[in-house]
Structures are given as C-alpha cells and as structure tokens.
Automatic annotation (TrEMBL):
Name of the protein in its database record: Transcriptional regulator, MarR family
Entry-linked PANTHER family: TRANSCRIPTIONAL REGULATOR, MARR, TRANSCRIPTIONAL REPRESSOR OF EMRAB OPERON
Residue ranges constituting the HTH marR-type domain according to the UniProt record: 12-144
GO molecular function: DNA binding; DNA-binding transcription factor activity
Species annotation: Caballeronia sordidicola (Burkholderia sordidicola)
Gene3D superfamilies linked: Winged helix-like DNA-binding domain superfamily/Winged helix DNA-binding domain
Transmembrane segments: none
Swiss-Prot/TrEMBL keywords: DNA-binding, Transcription, Transcription regulation
Pfam families found in the cross-reference section: MarR
Length: 145
C-alpha cells in the first residue's frame, strides 16, 4: 500500500522528516548530557555495543549502528585517541580488526546508564507503557527487523 503520492506529499509531514527531526533532537540532548563523559551520542553507541558484546569489529558495529565505514573509522580514531578503546589485528585473519574497551573505556561505558535514560525518559514521559511498546514495535516494523 502506498501512503504517499505527489498530491498528498508534504515534506514536513512525512515519516522521514519526523523521524529525522526526532533523531536530531535526541542527538543534541544526548550529546549535552554526555558532555561530562567527553563522548558523543554516536560514540556512546559504540561503547555500549562493545560493552554488551553486540559487535567486536568495525564492520559489525557499522552494520549494527547504521553508520558507514568511513564515519566508523573516524569515530574509532577519536575513541582510540581518548584511550577508550584499542584495535588489534585478528590472529586468524589479518584483514580483520578487533576492538576492545580499555579500562578507561569500561569506566566511561559504565557511567552511560546513569545519563542516557533521563534523556529518553524526558521524551517518553507522556507515553503509557502500552504506547511505549507500540512505538518500539512500529519502529522495528519500519526498520523491517
């Protein structure tokens, strides 16, 4: 079923516009909340993914987080410069780069759950539990997960 046509398409009312606007607002607020940890919201995604074992290579993290490999490399460079993670070549396949948090990276990652929920909860405060679950369900459906 097509929901948009050239007759009814209004950019500021499109799902793409609304999702992007919500993402931009969350990014600014999350970046502000994470400022004391000296990381960005995108860097937070990398640190938490490594902490939770959701990925261990730049390729895996790029795919998981929806970030192109060029941007991923630049973000990993910054995290490595901050001594939050280290890269090492796989012993089995020298083309593969493995990522691991440093002790400092683990300490920063451990503080993220003290900060991030407040930013998200501020936007979800008027949602019932059912509405919250439905929003997550619909976003997963939109992403075709």
């Amino acid at each position: 079923m097509n929901h948009y046509s050239k007759e009814n398409f209004r950019p500021t009312q499109s799902i793409g516009f609304l999702i992007n606007k919500a993402r931009n607002i969350l990014t600014v607020e999350m970046d502000t909340a994470l400022k004391d940890l000296d990381i960005s919201s995108q860097q937070m995604g990398i640190l938490m993914s490594l902490t939770l074992g959701l990925g261990a290579t730049p390729f895996e993290l790029s795919k998981l987080l929806g970030i192109d490999t060029g941007l991923m490399t630049r973000m990993l460079d910054k995290l490595e410069a901050k001594e939050l993670l280290e890269r090492s070549r796989s012993l089995e396949d020298r083309r593969v780069v493995n990522l691991a948090l440093t002790k400092k990276g683990e300490e920063v990652a451990a503080q993220i759950p003290e900060v991030a929920p407040d930013v998200l909860n501020a936007h979800l405060k008027n949602f019932s539990k059912t509405e919250f679950e439905e929003l997550r369900r619909l976003l997963r459906k939109f992403l075709a997960e």
